[in-house]
Design goal:
alpha+beta, two-stranded antiparallel ribbon, 11 strands
Length: about 400
């Protein structure tokens, strides 16, 4: 980590302390929009007031999330009618599960010993299933139900959004909305880091400008973050750019982040990311001090993946082709309603069948240094993915914190 970024972190921690008086002790019914910046409708340029995470005292949380698609059933409490649909279940690395300690001075793991072991088992089983399918070499087929994504998460209030391809910069596509930004290109944090270095250099090595952009003030801001995510014109994937602007108080005085949005959880982007998949056991505690690990859902997911793995191995042992094995796996996925996971009642996100998230067109996100065996017979070597260390208050800028 460079001296400039270390100073940046120090500034942010001091700035976060100024905002400790604003805390929400109950989950609100208001929902913050989630934006996946990996499809044509969300690519473009954003002018944003970033929000600091109350957990890590830093806006950005980065890491890898393993995902498995499962069939689920939602029951209408009024009519008794059941609706079946698919949902991607998130299996984050251990480092995502952080909370403030009782003193509020630092971040500690929110996992109990039992939860920690269950999460370890989930990762191990996901790896075994991925390896058994040889998913790296059958990406297009397997990515429909098992995948690994890099995420950078942060909350912010968007002043203006210009959709990629729009030629009139005077007319934004959208304005004035709060959102959780979910970015899958690793070039984003490179762009943020690079512009911080450049800005500090222009300021003679001073980082006094930091608190003008990164703050949890709802109004009276002096700066903003301007970033863009677009398709890479020279290779598959996306490319990001970022710049920090400040000294604009006279222009920005007209903007104010709605208090109800801020209190709806913008201080914890990870909780927003999990949504209904987060445990509600600590709903009465302040944001940043909640245990979000959903033991029941994770246990059901473990059992579900066990059935899938058993089906894949049985098909391969019977000498079936890859295509037939995938078909057998799909049968497990779409079995009888009794075999499905039950959806939590009354979750707003499940009012209708959820649509799969648009697929990123990045270079194979499952590739890496792991050595995956072929599909026919050789099953040695389980893929191993690094775990980001979020005990470091800077999970975004330290290359060792983000395993990509």
């Amino acid at each position: 980590m460079s001296i400039v970024v270390e100073d940046f972190m120090s500034k942010l921690k001091k700035q976060t302390g100024k905002n400790q008086s604003v805390r929400n002790f109950t989950r609100q019914t208001r929902k913050i929009e989630k934006l996946s910046l990996n499809n044509p409708n969300t690519l473009g340029r954003y002018q944003v007031f970033p929000i600091l995470s109350s957990v890590v005292d830093f806006p950005f949380i980065s890491g890898k999330v393993k995902q498995i698609k499962v069939p689920r059933t939602m029951k209408d409490q009024a009519t008794g009618e059941e609706t079946q649909y698919e949902a991607w279940i998130h299996i984050p690395t251990h480092g995502f599960y952080q909370m403030k300690d009782m003193s509020g001075r630092g971040a500690v793991s929110s996992l109990t010993a039992e939860e920690d072991q269950l999460l370890t088992n989930l990762h191990t089983l996901w790896d075994e299933l991925f390896n058994e399918l040889d998913a790296k070499n059958h990406f297009s087929e397997c990515n429909k139900f098992i995948r690994l994504k890099n995420y950078t998460l942060f909350s912010g209030y968007c002043l203006n959004f210009w959709k990629a391809g729009d030629t009139d910069n005077r007319v934004p596509t959208r304005q004035n909305f709060s959102a959780l930004f979910m970015i899958t290109t690793t070039s984003f944090m490179d762009a943020i880091n690079g512009n911080i270095e450049d800005r500090s250099l222009m300021e003679g090595g001073s980082n006094d400008w930091i608190e003008k952009v990164y703050t949890n003030d709802l109004k009276g801001r002096d700066g903003f973050l301007l970033f863009s995510i677009n398709k890479n014109s020279t290779s598959p994937g996306f490319i990001a750019s970022a710049q920090h602007e400040y000294g604009r108080a006279n222009v920005l005085s007209q903007y104010e982040i709605p208090k109800e949005d801020f209190e709806a959880g913008m201080e914890d982007p990870f909780e927003l990311f999990l949504g209904w998949q987060a445990s509600s056991q600590d709903a009465d505690k302040p944001i940043g001090q909640r245990r979000l690990f959903n033991k029941k859902l994770m246990q059901e997911t473990l059992e579900y993946m066990s059935n899938m793995l058993a089906s894949v191995r049985a098909s391969k042992a019977a000498g079936k082709s890859f295509e037939d094995t995938i078909e057998e796996t799909r049968k497990i996925m779409f079995g009888s309603p009794a075999d499905r996971l039950s959806a939590p009642a009354g979750t707003p996100q499940e009012a209708k069948p959820s649509q799969p998230a648009p697929q990123a067109t990045q270079i194979d996100p499952l590739s890496g240094t792991q050595d995956f065996s072929g599909f026919n017979g050789n099953t040695q070597g389980t893929p191993s993915f690094a775990t980001p260390d979020f005990s470091n208050p800077n999970p975004g800028f330290n290359p060792g914190d983000a395993p990509f």
